[in-house]
Amino acid sequence: MSRYEKMFAKLAARGEGAFVPFIMLSDPTPVVALDVVRAAVAGGADALELGVPFSDPVADGPTIQASHVRALANGATVDAALAQIRILRAEFPEIPIGMLIYGNVAFTRGIDAFYQDFAQAGADSILLPDVPVRESVAFVPAAERAGIDPVFIAPAQAAEKTLRGVAEVARGYIYAISRDGVTGTERESETTGLAQVVSRIAKYGGVPPLLGFGISTPKHVADAIAAGAAGAITGSALTKVINQHVDEDGRVKPGLSNAVQEFVASMKAATLPATA
């Protein structure tokens, strides 16, 4: 079984959903980013989604865009991201590590080398947010050769053909979204749309869906699970917590790790079954 399969089986046995925080590697520095990840794991994160800084993050809103820019300004590179993954895999051998990376990084590095490098570092899955499933033909075989789970987005208003394609090729999990747009906008998650996406994906036997985009409160997490998702991913809301503890020059203010751990713990608590 893969790490994702083991995680979902364990959580299902306990009646829990998954909570997955998104964290930008190298933001504001590799050392700080590693401490943030450690705090998230201490707070109860079931899996990790880690970003690799990129200069044109078209799927991200202003909050996460700022983390890309800040990391790049401090010298972030793909090789530095790989080094951080190696450290995290050694520290957390069981936790699933998913990557969110823009397609240009794969093309620049060479698609096969790209997947192999991240697999060897310890990543379990890769989501390329600017590569839709209809353009996956060059990526899925390379991911499979490297032993990486290719993750794809199931858009809010997706056609049946798109959902069928996502269910057929996605591994690890499906990144389901309940609304269109970019991450971190003021619009909240709409779980009615998610319930429809989940039920439509289920017809094709896809891997478990996790809800992303617009998840910023414990109620959003609970609503996502109630709508049929296997869990939820939070990016912008956690990045805002980090931003509050990092100044414009990338210097860290006191309390960052505690704030991250407390935020993740509150979100994870919303995945637990109700007690009588």
Structural class: alpha/beta
Instruction: Sketch the topology as an H/E string, one letter per element.
Output: HEHEHHEHHEHEEHEHEHEHH
Low-confidence stretches: 180-187
Strand order of the largest sheet: 5-4-3-2-1-9-8-7-6
Q: How many β-strands, per DSSP?
A: 9
- What is the CA-based Rg, rounded? 17 Å
> Helical amount among residues, as a percent range?
40-55%
Per-chain topology:
Layout: H1 3-14, E1 18-24, H2 30-42, E2 48-51, H3 62-73, H4 78-91, E3 97-100, H5 103-109, H6 111-121, E4 125-127, H7 140-146, E5 149-151, E6 153-154, H8 160-169, E7 174-177, H9 191-202, E8 209-212, H10 218-226, E9 231-234, H11 236-243, H12 256-269
Parallel strand pairs: 1-2, 1-9, 2-3, 3-4, 4-5, 6-7, 7-8, 8-9
Helix pairs in contact: 2-4, 2-12, 4-6, 5-6, 6-7, 8-9
Written overview of the protein:
The chain is α/β, with parallel strands linked by helices. It is 47% helix and 13% strand. The protein has 12 helices and 9 strands. Strands 5-4-3-2-1-9-8-7-6 form a 9-stranded parallel β-sheet. The relative contact order is 0.17.
